Amino acid sequence: MTPDLSPERIIERLANPTPDRRPLMQEIRQYAPVGDVIAALQMRPKQALTRQILCDILGYRPDTKSIPVLVQSLNDRAARVRRSAADALGKLALANIRDVRVGPALLARYLRDRRPDGSPQTMLAALGAVKYAPALPTILSGLESENAGTRKVAAWALMKLAETDASEPLKSALAHETDTAVAAMIQQAIGKLKRI
Fold first, then answer.
1. Cβ 154 vs Cβ 145: under 8 Å
2. pTM for the full predicted model
3. CA-CA distance, 50 to 157, in Å (whole number)?
């Protein structure tokens, strides 16, 4: 028997504390129609965790109908929801679900939320995944972060963005990089750009 996963019921079930919400998330991903998950998020549940989980679920359900509510969620008052919305939009882009509103919205949110260490990295990654070329200077600036994680994400984003203008800055960053994991990602990005 299929569980009752109306928008109201989805919110109600997610609002109940459990030690592990992954089984419920999986159930919603598997059985709830995308439209009902979207409707649940549009109802603006009180708990930020519920809104975050709904964004996460939509990221695993490639459907163009979810883009507007995810773009709207980039302006949620809770940073965790904004990050999940950005992650979901990046996942949709990697599944070739694209929309012209996504890149500008992600860049604007990143510029508002950016901290000196380059965070939030999720927004940076999503900018590359959606292939938003006007974000190239912003993503390139991530290569100069003091935070190794941010530099690695910036290299990944540049690889996904696939703009050949990033080749020289990546080579320059590689020459100075001391973190082996970051250097490996930069090399991977350079290799991909060579094949373009």
1. yes
2. 0.93
3. 28
- 180 Cβ neighbours under 8 A, 6+ residues apart: none
Rounded-to-integer distance, Cα 153 and Cα 143, Å: 9
Q: What's the longest Cα–Cα distance across the chain?
A: 59
Burial class of 28 by CB neighbour count within 10 A (0 to 12, 13 to 18, 19+): buried
pLDDT digits (tens, 9 = 90+) for 118-163: 568 999 999 999 999 999 999 999 999 999 999 999 999 999 999 8
Q: Which of 38, 36, 34, 10 is nearest to 24 (CA)?
A: 10
Instruction: Match 């969620």 to its residue by tokens.
Output: 73
Dihedral of the alpha carbons of 119, 87, 22, 54, in degrees to the nearest 10: 110
CA–CA separation, 179 and 181 (whole Å): 6
Q: Which residues contact 62 (CB under 8 A, 6 or more apart)?
A: 91, 92, 95, 96, 97
